[in-house]
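Homework-ish question, so no full write-ups if that breaks the rules, but can someone show me the predicted structure for this set?
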Amino acid sequence: MAISRRAFLTTAGIGGAVAGGYYLSGGRLLGPWTRDPSQTMAAVANGARLLLHNNENPLGPGARAIEAMQAVLTDTTWPAARYGLPTGELTEALAGMYQCETQNILLGCGSTQILRSATHAFTSPTRPLLLSAASYEECPAMARVMGTTVEYVPITSAMFMDLEALAARAKGAGLVFVCNPNNPTATVLSRTAMDTFVEAVLAASPDTTILLDEAYHEYVTDPDYGTQYDIALKNPRVIVSRTFSKAYGMAGLRLGYAIGMPETLRAMRSVQFGMGANVLALKAAVAALGEPERITAEAARNTAVRQYTMDWFSQHGFEPTDSQCNFIFVNIGRPATEFREGCATHGVMVGRDFPPFEKTHTRVSIGTMEEMQKATAVFADVLGVTQAASAA
Amino acid sequence: MAVSRRAFVESLMGGSRGPRPGAAWISARGHEAFVGEFGQQAEPPAQQGQGRRGGRGRAMVRLSSNENPLGPSAVAIAAIEKAYSYAGRYPTNPVPSVNDMRTLIAGKHGLEMANVALGAGSGETLDAAAKAFTSPTKGLVTAIPSYESPTREVRRMNHPITEVPVDVAGKLDLEKMIAASTGAGLVFVCNPNNPTATVHGREPIADMVQRISAASPDTVILVDEAYHDYVTDPSYTSAIPLIPQYPNLVISRTFSKAHGMAGLRLGFGIGQPAVIERLSGWMMVPFNANALAVAAAYASLEDEAGLARETARNTAARQFTLDFFRNAGFEATDSQTNFIFVKLGRPAREFREGCAEQGIAVGRDFAPMEKEWARVSIGTQEEMDKAVAVFKTVLNV
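A: Not a homework solution, just the prediction itself:
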């Protein structure tokens, strides 16, 4: 079903510019800002343009991560010019963090590579990919290239992933992709509900693999949530993916990883390009793992700014979901395109369309408090509400 | 730690095709080969926490992986330092963005952004080409010995492979490759060829592309020009100018060699938009090229004087090294790269182990020539002075 839903995206093809966006191979959409990249960062540098469209950490990597990268560049054995990538240091640090073996960790060029490798390894033209609509679209992009059928289960009216419906559809699926918390809906499901779901899927379809994408893990504040990496360490049909692109502030460096059992990760490793991680990212990540208090501080900072932003929308009559991420998903009662283009004229970039919610909902990433104060003033203008009310 | 790593490597190989490597095999093949074949996580026990020490504890001179011994240029490093401030942004967002990079590359050849797909090194392009263009009925045609990356991936998929031996001069046997190409999914043309170091000029490559395209229009031709910048043979030019005439021609390039960025992971494929789109489907675009590598490469590509200095330096050190071997009575191919391929008349392994004992790492085995030929990467002149002194003792000259 949903293949046709997304099929329109592929018609423009790579390099195709369309109104309000830009389509990449595999059908992913980038916003119109990528059409004028020469303006983007220059504008941001002088405060004119706010990037609230890609769920990035506005503060970037920490000082220790940058020092670690700088040490690579000043090392006169020139590790930046060498193929001998120091992957072992990072897998050992991660193994220490998760109390597992290095064989339980698979690095990727962002979790992008992990999601693609899992899709490649576990789906086929006869073994579909199953996921929620709307959810993160990396796995479907890979599936379409492979000729794998993509099956979608709608999000519930309360804006949660419909775990019961997903489990009911799982039989015969090659891979079930569950993003928790979910991008773009921002909601999270409890550890109890997720455990029940994993058991239900594997009872109904023992050969199905479940990929649990925990990209936004560090930003969750709901006490009922719990990471499921412990299940991935003991169940060969379960994989957890994580990224350094969000709370760690390294989206530009491209590093993520999977946690799973060695035999499961081996299947992914065998199909994935083995040299995707770069030396600067590897060194920066090791340094960042040594500074966990920075992640705690980043999460607290995000929580406060997220609350401010959600409150602003609520006070103006627009209902956001219960965000557990570094972005919010809000019902603005009008097409996301309209809102996005209106904001763009004021230099504020917000999220792309997320079918089937693109006619009513928009996704707004959380920047710094100063950025969000500027952004809400723009939102007031674009949405036609009086900014005075927000001061109340 | 080494024990568990070895166990890991062996477990990694369970159920897959090919040899089961032990630690000895890994150190013998070298890190470049090991990483390429077994994935980025696995590190050979010999290289663990070592700080590149050779036998007897001295610093190892790495002449094993065709790297640039001077690292990225000063302008590239300055660009990275400037780019830290946006390392938190996806590579689509900053200036230069991935699309700026594509546009710059394309513009150098009179082409457009849609002609270019960036990769995490040209290795990702080669891996993707194997996945995108071969099938159980449409195989790979490649040379032997040549760069093994496409062969390895096609073998994993169990698709057919035709390996055409290089000729007596170590050059790709273009006539036999053309003859083998009809009906193939992918023809891999590494020019200059790794490990034999030889190049074909513009005319024979243009003729090959024309004849394969005429006889087998669905076959994709991938010309790997990783060592393009180091070529000095005046009959050579890039195959990129052929792109407008041939819908199934792709050229791959890398910033890992002359630009000194192997650790930063950036390369690209360039061709007509339709074939680049097919290729890109199997790549992680646009999230494969990291923002720091893009910033560095953008600056480096604009620094033509810096590139000229690097190629001149390589040419001189290469000539010095070739002269040493030839004067000592060993035949070497006509190197057009940052490595040489030399006939030692003894197993590469024996030479490699002898050199390693004295702190010089040289290239891995390249079947079927590994019983007589060795590959030596070109380091700095100072490194080559040291290396030649070692070669003299190992070769008894």
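Now go work out the reasoning yourself. Hint: Confidence is low (pLDDT under 50) at residues 1-38 of chain A.
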